């Protein structure tokens, strides 16, 4: 079993990643999201989000770090994914789970759960833009306001060629309510798919 340090916007920046990976044995850290709209972001944006890129995408204690992107336009997700790995990110992650009203209002994060085809196109474009030996991973929730489309969402990720799928076991509307976590649904998705299967080196 692997243990990943998941991102929390406004909380888990590079300093907190450094501190936590010094005292805990994490296999991987995921950055907070880098918002992609309609352009290839400048190199400085990647370094600001993930200064570990200056050090082979590792924290001072040696834990690998992966850049996370958030957006809705496959072509720009692909361009920025390619830049992230060119700068040293150990793969790239697509955020399809952020429930923030601000993020969702601009078409990113959990909004993509309404359109599994768009998730497929975004993940596929990123997969094609990133060298095959590096992981492309996707973070989702069970759905927007219900989990009825959870298998459709999961299938879209796998069919796009993603290396791994991370499932937050609540819908967007569930927010972060502890009593709404659906462990059974997570297990059902796990049994359905042949991923995760990301390569480790």
From TrEMBL:
<dbReference type="GO" id="GO:0017150">
    <property type="term" value="F:tRNA dihydrouridine synthase activity"/>
</dbReference>
<keyword id="KW-0285">Flavoprotein</keyword>
<keyword id="KW-0560">Oxidoreductase</keyword>
<dbReference type="InterPro" id="IPR013785">
    <property type="entry name" value="Aldolase_TIM"/>
</dbReference>
<protein>
    <submittedName>
        <fullName>tRNA-dihydrouridine synthase C</fullName>
        <ecNumber>1.-.-.-</ecNumber>
    </submittedName>
</protein>
<keyword id="KW-0288">FMN</keyword>
<feature type="domain" description="DUS-like FMN-binding">
    <location>
        <begin position="4"/>
        <end position="196"/>
    </location>
</feature>
<dbReference type="InterPro" id="IPR035587">
    <property type="entry name" value="DUS-like_FMN-bd"/>
</dbReference>
<dbReference type="Pfam" id="PF01207">
    <property type="entry name" value="Dus"/>
</dbReference>
<keyword id="KW-0819">tRNA processing</keyword>
<dbReference type="InterPro" id="IPR018517">
    <property type="entry name" value="tRNA_hU_synthase_CS"/>
</dbReference>
<dbReference type="GO" id="GO:0050660">
    <property type="term" value="F:flavin adenine dinucleotide binding"/>
</dbReference>
């Amino acid at each position: 079993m692997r243990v990943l340090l998941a991102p929390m916007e406004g909380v888990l920046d590079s300093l907190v990643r450094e501190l936590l990976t010094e005292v805990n044995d994490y296999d991987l850290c995921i950055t907070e999201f880098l918002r992609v709209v309609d352009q290839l972001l400048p190199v400085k944006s990647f370094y600001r989000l993930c200064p570990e890129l200056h050090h082979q995408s590792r924290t001072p204690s040696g834990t690998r770090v992966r850049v996370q992107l958030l957006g809705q336009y496959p072509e720009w997700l692909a361009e920025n994914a390619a830049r992230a790995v060119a700068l040293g990110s150990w793969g790239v992650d697509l955020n399809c789970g952020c429930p923030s009203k601000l993020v969702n209002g601009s078409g990113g994060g959990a909004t993509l759960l309404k359109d599994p085809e768009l998730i497929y196109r975004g993940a596929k474009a990123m997969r094609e833009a990133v060298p095959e030996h590096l992981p492309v991973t996707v973070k989702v929730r069970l759905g927007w306001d219900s989990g009825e489309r959870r298998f459709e969402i999961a299938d879209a990720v796998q069919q796009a060629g993603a290396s791994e799928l991370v499932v937050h076991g609540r819908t967007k509307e569930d927010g972060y309510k502890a009593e709404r976590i659906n462990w059974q649904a997570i297990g059902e998705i796990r049994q359905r798919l042949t991923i995760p299967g990301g390569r480790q080196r």
